[in-house]
Design brief:
Layout lengths: L1 E6 L3 H12 L4 E4 L17 E2 L2 E2 L7 H12 L3 E3 L2 E6 L4 E6 L2 E12 L3 E3 L12 E3 H11 L6 E5 L3 H12 L3 E7 L7 H7 L3 H16 L3 E4 L1 E7 L6 E6 L7 E5 L3 E4 L3 E3 L2 H6 L3 E4 L4 E4 L12 E3 L9 H18 L5 H27 L15 E3 L4 E2 H9 L5 H8 L12 H12 L20 H5 L3
This protein binds flavin-adenine dinucleotide (FAD).
């Protein structure tokens, strides 16, 4: 029995584990990756890519200090261990080194991160179309430059970051395309000033794209990807109200795309936590109180698995949840209470900044007018838009019926990639809002596991 079990060793989980361990609690930290750090600290010490210096990919000092704190405080770190299930009594089923183990914690902190959201477009499954986060990971973790002539599609901070990383590593960015131009308001600018340091970082990305004379296109969408075996180019179409559409072909070998991040809510769902609709970013996320405890007592959710708000937010949330756990266990000296209120104050400031970023970020939503019937929606099971439209035309009214009819969301990823698109199509077909279609509680096991390993459990 641990005082605290933390699932996920990204910024949120690391910060929770460090803070809890430093308060004297018995902690276990579980992550399915071989190295701790999550998406943000996915550095493998890459120094050069294609002969160029890649300064931003040096291994972060935070990882080194975390590793020494975790070892000094006796934290049990399980890497390459996948949590397959959590029950409401905080028992975790974990696949680890060819067997299935069960761990129980007095408190569980879920810090499982988010995944990329990519809204389908014709040709999006062609090799050479990748997410902005995936591009970052290839460069940071493997030292691989994924393409040499690149178009970046999307208007959010991760797209800008990926564009500048690709530039620094020697790629040519042919264009950065957004579906619409953001409307900048004075009020949003004021809120951005809550964190001038992060705001300036964002500005340097934009400045760098300007210095390299990267074309910034707005009101453009990808209407086709050229190439079967791999990307050879894209057709972009400008859709601007009042103007006739104009078409342009870009010769590229890589399409980097991102329509935001989707919180990984599956663990919280399995634990029985209440899930609610977050209207500003149009995602489902676990409901929490001011200490980030979910509706299931002693189960906390922090970082991107609640709302994707960047590494700094994850670091703060992990520390707040762990400090709250320590205080609720009576480990509450004056210093710790002061620290908790300081962390919460910093977090509130960051939320104001974040609300402005969300407001200024161009949110793409599924619009079937821009899709062709042969556009693949569920890439695991190869289900096209036409197949889904056929089923919806036959009076299919809910997700289960649609799954049975077409096999959408039933492949290896269990709907993690296509569920949001499928629910949006379903909502449109039955004339409801997307928030009225809650994703179902996922089935056990949450991630693929070898049958032999699973059988050893019984
Ligand atoms: C693909 C991708 C790349 C990104 N790259 C960057 C970037 O380069 N720069 C940047 O500023 N932001 C990046 N982001 C945004 C990033 O999500 C946040 O900035 C930050 O990493 C969030 O921290 P976190 O701890 O909340 O989640 P994460 O960093 O995502 O950490 C979650 C961890 O939990 C683990 N996990 C999840 N489920 C389980 C399970 N069932 N069992 C065991 N372990 C599990 C994951 O493997 C991961 O290590 C990226 C996001 C994505 C999706």
């Amino acid at each position: 029995m641990y005082n605290v079990i933390v699932v996920g060793a990204g910024p949120a989980g690391l910060s929770a584990a460090r803070t809890a361990a430093e308060a004297g609690l018995k902690v276990a930290l579980i992550d399915d990756q071989p190295r701790i750090g999550g998406q943000y600290f996915r550095h493998a010490g890459v120094k050069r890519i294609g002969g160029l210096l890649a300064p931003q990919f040096r291994r972060a000092r935070y990882i080194d200090t975390s590793l020494s704190t975790l070892s000094r405080c006796g934290v049990k770190v399980l890497s390459e261990a996948t949590v397959l299930d959590i029950s409401a009594d905080r028992t975790l089923t974990v696949a680890f080194r060819g067997s299935i183990a069960q761990l129980q914690g007095e408190n569980v902190v879920i810090a499982a991160g988010a995944r990329e959201r990519i809204i389908p477009f014709p040709g999006w499954t062609t090799p050479g179309v990748i997410g902005a986060g995936a591009a970052q990971n290839l460069m940071k973790a493997s030292g691989v430059l994924p393409g040499s002539r690149v178009v970046v599609v999307g208007a959010n901070p991760l797209c800008l970051l990926a564009a500048t990383s690709l530039l620094r590593c020697g790629a040519k960015i042919v264009a950065v395309c957004a579906p619409r131009r953001p409307r900048v308001t004075f009020n949003a600018l004021l809120r951005l000033m809550r964190r001038p340091d992060i705001f300036l970082r964002g500005m340097t990305y934009l400045l760098m794209l300007r210095l390299y004379r990267v074309r910034m296109l707005s009101d453009y969408r990808v209407t086709d990807v050229i190439g079967d075996e791999k990307v050879a180019g894209v057709i972009m179409r400008r859709f601007r109200e009042g103007l006739p559409p104009s078409e342009e072909r870009l010769e590229v070998d890589l399409v980097v795309v991102n329509d935001g991040l989707l919180p990984n809510i599956e663990l919280a769902s399995r634990a029985g936590c209440e899930i609610e609709w977050e209207p500003s970013t149009s995602v489902w996320s676990p409901k929490r109180n001011a200490d980030f405890e979910t509706t299931v007592p002693c189960v906390y959710a922090v970082g991107d698995c609640v709302t994707a708000s960047g590494a700094e937010n994850s670091l703060l949330e992990g520390a707040i949840a762990a400090t709250s756990i320590a205080t609720s266990r009576g480990i509450a000296d004056r210093g710790r209470l002061r620290q908790l209120s300081r962390l919460k104050w910093q977090w509130r400031r960051l939320q104001e900044f974040r609300s402005a970023v969300v407001e200024l970020t161009v949110k793409e939503s599924l619009d079937v007018r821009y899709l062709t019937d042969d556009t693949i929606v569920c890439r695991c099971e190869d289900v096209s838009l036409a197949t889904i439209k056929d089923a919806l035309g036959q009076d299919v009214q809910d997700l289960n019926a649609l799954k049975a009819e077409t096999r959408v969301c039933m492949g290896r990823c269990q709907g993690r990639t296509c569920m949001h698109t499928v629910l949006a199509l379903l909502a449109t077909a039955v004339g409801k809002e997307p928030d009225q279609f809650m994703p179902p509680v996922p089935r056990l096991p949450l991630r693929p596991v070898r049958v032999g390993d699973w059988l050893k459990k019984f």
